UniProtKB/TrEMBL annotation:
UniProt name for this protein: Aquaporin
Compartments where found: Membrane
Membrane spanning stretches: 12-32, 44-70, 91-114, 126-145, 157-178, 198-222
Membrane topology designation: Multi-pass membrane protein
Source organism of the structure: Streptomyces tanashiensis
InterPro entries: Aquaporin-like, Aquaporin_transptr, MIP
PANTHER family according to UniProt: AQUAPORIN NIP1-1-RELATED, AQUAPORIN NIP2-1
Family designation: Belongs to the MIP/aquaporin (TC 1.A.8) family.
Length: 240
């Protein structure tokens, strides 16, 4: 028997807590790695492994409550795909919770390591090749999330999404932030994982562009779904 979804305040709280925990893991592991090694490869490996493991666990725990978006581009892409049975207020509540959670998580990570919370990051990340990498990273993330839904394998999300992010941290030039909320949060940490506030708008724009690209790729690969959630008849005819 399927349980009814929790009320919106509880789901928003789950998004806040999950996003805060995720950003704390990303920023905290970056601070720890930076203090243990001067080898950039070692630091990146430690940060990628901790980020992927933390994300997978959080999706498994919080997914049944809110869907474990932790990311405005996931929320927006899921809303658009299910806009006939989704409410705009849910989107606003989720995104507000994610933004607040990301900032909270970054400040918490700074405080845990005895650093003064609230110091702005100084690492610029505005080069065009980094923005291209960020668009690619976000497109891949949206494609994974949308693809799992289309093939009816949502239970694979903890492994698939975490695995993708862990890989994308390595194969993209940007390090795969792929999350406007986390990008904002990471601007509050002058550490290995930080991003200068001046670079945040361009990164967020690249992420939104990547979201559109990922949704387009999902449409090409899996077709579209009607308001009822059933495959579009036109797609069935093309594949029949």
């Amino acid at each position: 028997m399927r349980m009814s979804p929790p009320a919106l305040p509880r789901r928003a709280a789950a998004e806040f807590i999950g996003t805060a925990a995720l950003v704390a893991v990303v920023v905290g592991s970056g601070i720890r790695a930076d203090s243990l090694s001067q080898d950039i490869g070692v630091r990146l490996l430690a940060n990628a492994a901790a980020s992927a493991l933390g994300l997978g666990l959080l999706i498994a725990l919080i997914g049944p409550l809110s869907g474990a978006h932790f990311n405005p581009v996931v929320t927006l892409s899921e809303w658009w795909s299910r806009r006939h049975d989704s409410k705009g207020r849910d989107v606003l509540a989720y995104i507000a919770a994610q933004l607040a959670g990301a900032v909270t998580g970054a400040l918490l990570a700074e405080a845990m390591f005895g650093r003064a919370p609230g110091a702005w990051a100084t690492e610029p990340r505005s080069a065009l090749h980094l923005l291209l990498g960020e668009a690619v990273a976000t497109a891949g993330l949206v494609l994974v999330v949308q693809g799992l839904r289309h093939i009816d394998r949502p239970g694979l999300a903890p492994v698939a999404v975490a695995g993708y992010i862990g890989a994308a941290i390595w194969f993209t030039s940007s390090g795969s932030f792929a999350n406007p909320a986390a990008t904002l949060g990471r601007s509050f940490s002058d550490s290995f994982t930080g991003i200068a506030p001046a670079s945040v708008p361009a990164f967020a724009a690249a992420q939104l562009l990547g979201m559109l690209l990922g949704m387009g790729l999902a449409g090409v690969l899996y077709g579209t779904r009607g308001a009822s959630g059933e495959p579009n008849p036109a797609d069935a005819r093309r594949t029949g």
